[in-house]
Specification:
Distance between the termini: 25 Å
Strand content: under 5%
Shape: globular
Number of strands: 2
Radius of gyration: 19 Å
Structural class: mainly alpha
Number of helices: 16
Strand order of the largest sheet: 1-2
Mean pLDDT: 83
Oligomer: single chain
């Protein structure tokens, strides 16, 4: 069910050649150049301070970083759309699977593209603004990215970089994460479970083929896959896409990208 040429095919000519029919495509179709800047780690003492970990942060260069992140997201959706086994699923199942796994797939895309980003302290909201806007503002501020969330994301990226995954390993790992039969409300859950098992089996074969001397590598890859699922949806949305899409619903925009003709 997972021929190598299917799941490792990163090209999506039909999607790339289509005119930008949606607002999201216009927003997110930016340069595919990588943005590499700054150093990744701060002082270890600051890392361990609870106050520091709860500190609200934002991107240091939102224009450049959001452009690169948007390119990664477009490539991620393109990859998903290019899989015949995914396209054969009912549209509701396609939407549910993408809604559930887009963050882990996006993190894999960041790792594969070797994306590095810097953050800085988020500007504090004035007391007057808090009084005028009331409780709703507090809820919005609770969703703001924290230094702890960013550290967790960076730790996941470093784990993947240390594994030095090949393009084939990345592709099959994405397939194993995408086809998750545990997602609620699927109408073809048995078929999707078979696809997930096949992707995991193919991943194991590729890992053994490329690294026959490393018997523990497959378990390390699976552990990394589990770790990236700890990255929160709100962190990724608020940090990388909120500066671009504002208050638009991210899941609605992803669905629009998935089914654009």
């Amino acid at each position: 069910m997972f021929p190598l040429e299917e799941i490792t095919n990163h090209s999506c000519p039909g999607y790339r050649d289509q005119p930008p029919h949606t607002i999201l495509y216009n927003i997110l179709s930016g340069s595919e150049s990588r943005y590499l800047n700054g150093k990744l780690n701060r002082d270890a003492t600051a890392h361990n301070c609870p106050c520091e970990q709860r500190r609200a942060v934002c991107l240091q260069d939102p224009k450049a970083t959001c452009q690169v992140a948007s390119s990664v997201l477009v490539k991620t959706v393109c990859f998903v759309r290019s899989l015949p086994s995914f396209s054969q699923l009912p549209s509701g199942d396609q939407s549910s699977l993408l809604s559930h796994c887009w963050v882990p797939l996006f993190v894999l895309g960041l790792a594969q593209e070797k994306i590095v980003f810097e953050v800085t302290d988020a500007p504090n909201t004035s007391i007057l603004r808090k009084i005028l806007l009331g409780p709703g503002l507090a809820g919005n501020e609770a969703d703001r990215p924290t230094l702890a969330g960013v550290h967790n994301l960076r730790a996941c990226l470093h784990t993947l970089w240390n594994l030095d995954l090949s393009p084939k390993e990345y592709a099959y790992l994405k397939g194993a994460l995408l086809f998750n039969s545990a997602v609620q409300g699927l109408s073809a859950s048995s078929f999707i479970e078979g696809l997930q098992q096949e992707a995991q089996r193919a991943l194991g074969e590729v890992v053994h083929l490329l690294h026959p001397e490393d018997a523990a590598r497959f378990s390390h890859v699976l552990r990394a896959a589990s770790t990236i699922q700890t990255v929160s949806r709100s962190l990724v949305t608020e940090l990388f896409f909120k500066p671009v899409i504002g208050n638009a619903n991210m899941l609605h925009l992803l669905t629009e990208m998935l089914f654009v003709q």
